[in-house]
Amino acid sequence: xxxxxxxxxxxxxxxxxxxxxxxxxxxxxxxxxxxxxxxxxxxxxxxxxxxxxxxxxxxxxxxxxxxxxxxxxxxxxxxxxxxxxxxxxxxxxxxxxxxxxxxxxxxxxxxxxxxxxxxxxxxxxxxxxxxxxxxxxxxxxxxxxxxxxxxxxxxxxxxxxxxxxxxxxxxxxxxxxxxxxxxxxxxxxxxxxxxxxxxxxxxxxxxxxxxxxxxxxxxxxxxxxxxxxxxxxxxxxxxxxxxxxxxxxxxxxxxxxxxxxxxxxxxxxxxxxxxxxxxxxxxxxxxxxxxxxxxxxxxxxxxxxxxxxxxxxxxxxxxxxxxxxxxxxxxxxxxxxx
Length: 338
Known about the structure:
Layout (H helix, E strand, L loop, with lengths): L2 E3 L2 E3 L4 E5 L6 E6 L3 H20 L2 H17 L1 H12 L3 H24 L3 E4 L10 E4 L6 E5 L7 H12 L3 E5 L6 H12 L7 E3 L4 H10 L5 E5 L2 H11 L3 E5 L5 E4 L5 H13 L11 E4 L1 H16 L19 H14 L1
Parallel strand pairs: 7-8, 7-10, 8-9, 10-11, 12-13
Antiparallel strand pairs: 1-2, 3-4, 5-6
């Protein structure tokens, strides 16, 4: 696939292979964008931001609503794209496509709800009959920097609200999983999104991300990823607005009176969905000594029943991790814990 900037689908001589994490096969290639591409894209997005600022809330909502309808029509295809490039099982890929569609649909609702606020001032002396009001003003250009583990829904989480609020948006998808983001851009353009108001640049995170974070034309950065990268972005961003969704260490606390079968089922689902590559997955299980043994007895057969293999094959319950080096890292942690 090509990347989208300056109102056009564009290619570059340098390429990035997009591989299937299960088979290792190259399923597509995308251009390797550069900081120069970011500069060109932002020059066009400045005009796009002006168009979006002047667009009525009804029209922004209409674009998002049509995009959601197109996503519903193509839900199976989008789910297969997610599964093929990211490695999660097909059922999880289709579910993500459904969630992404809901995210865009809710954004269409919110486009109509953004409003002014009127505040009475007569609680202060000498302010009888006076009031203040606020106006919601779009930021301008929003940079959406997204991770691999939810390559469609987390893009939708950033792009949908940005459009609803009247902004232009530039997407930097994860290099391992750029195809889902590009598919969403196709759908948004088909739904009527002004071509000058959206861009999606594929390429290395350091070069493209650093350029986005330091360029003064970008007025807000929305990032999902690690704490270390999020901290670096905040230091580079200056006076830009930032929205950070960073890593977690999520505990599950099982009390003595818990339904252990239900707890074991939920821990199995939460801990092993997408091969554990979920920021809110079950990462630590805390129990008392009184229920520890019984909980393990309930959990063990459920985990042993998880079948691994081709994520597109019927019956597979867990696919591969996104990269072999990540699987090696996790395996070393398991050995260390044992």
